[in-house]
Amino acid sequence: MSMIKAVIVEDSRLARNELKELIKNHGDIEIVGEAENVDEGYKLINETQPDLLFLDINMPEKDGFELLEMLDKVPITVFTTAFDEYAIKSFEYNALDYILKPINAKRFAKAIEKVKAQLEGATTENGQENATNEAKEKLTESSQIFIKDGDKCWLVKIGDISLFEIVGNYTRVYFKGEKPMLYKSLNQVEEKLPEHNFFRVNRQQIINVNYIANVVPWFNGKLKLTMNSGEEVEVSRRQSYIFKDKMSI
């Protein structure tokens, strides 16, 4: 495996130094930057595109969850926290791992093992990386996005999402029985999605073709799709022709 690029977002300089000392024991991790607040962290992550994010949850002004909500593409995230209630909550966010402060070297090493396992899995799924800037900006099946809807939050793999649907100015996201709202427009979402998996069936909806259970002819040359989760989706007449060609129907 190539070097793992890591970013630390943590308001305590002492805690940042502690993490850097622990990372020295792992020669395949390179710290490409550190930030002491969310706004600095957001800028740093967009500039460096790290593989791994060490993120403090409880920071002044904006917390770690707000940072994840700002990002289009979320790196593998390991939460660092001094508060047990945050650590428990982080499981709801599907974080890869959390580490309680002060950080134990053995516990830290276990977290790094999980990181490497997930990165290896993502490399296998995606195959060779495309070097173009456009490809790097696109999400892949293993890319994560962060969704916050009310008090609930999720880190969701793009490949686990079956359907995106317009609701007013926002987008409902369907995955694994969940249907939270993403506070971005469908057009914003569509720009980042991998085109080989996702298809705009009409003005309101984008589907993941891997989750289609059934396709039937519908009125006026249209198609109707049934998704694995049971939702029925009508493909517009124009998009039905394109869909048939794409799927070789």
Question: Could you explain how this protein is built, in words?
Answer:
- This protein has a 5-stranded parallel β-sheet with strand order 2-1-3-4-5, sandwiched between helices. A 5-stranded antiparallel β-sheet has the order 10-9-8-12-11, covered by helices on one side.
- The chain folds into 2 domains: 124 residues, 3-Layer(aba) Sandwich (Rossmann fold), CATH 3.40.50; 89 residues, OB fold (Dihydrolipoamide Acetyltransferase, E2P) (Beta Barrel), CATH 2.40.50.
- A hairpin with a 4-residue loop joins strand 11 and strand 12.
- The protein has 249 residues and is an alpha/beta fold.
- About 3% of the residues have low confidence.
- It is built from 8 helices and 15 strands.
- Helix 2 packs across helix 3.
Brief sketch in words of this structure:
It is built from eight helices and 15 strands.
CATH fold-level name of the largest domain: Rossmann fold
Question: Strand share of the residues?
Answer: 25-35%
Question: Briefly, what CATH class of the largest domain?
Answer: Alpha Beta
SS-based class: alpha/beta
| Full CATH superfamily name of the largest domain | Response regulator
Unreliable stretches: 128-135
Alpha-carbon distance between the two ends = 40 Å
Write down the secondary-structure element order. Answer: EHEHEHEHEHHEEEEEHEEEEEH
The residue-averaged pLDDT reads 86
- The helix content, as a percent range, equals 25-40%
Task: Work out the radius of gyration.
Answer: 20 Å
Q: Largest beta sheet: what is the strand line-up?
A: 2-1-3-4-5
Tell me how many strands there are.
Answer: 15
The count of domains is 2
- What gross morphology would you assign? elongated
Main beta sheet strand tally, sense and closure: 5 strands, parallel
CATH architecture of the largest domain: 3-Layer(aba) Sandwich
Modified residues (4-aspartylphosphate): 56
Domain HTH LytTR-type: 145-249
Protein name: Two component transcriptional regulator, LytTR family
Keywords: Phosphoprotein
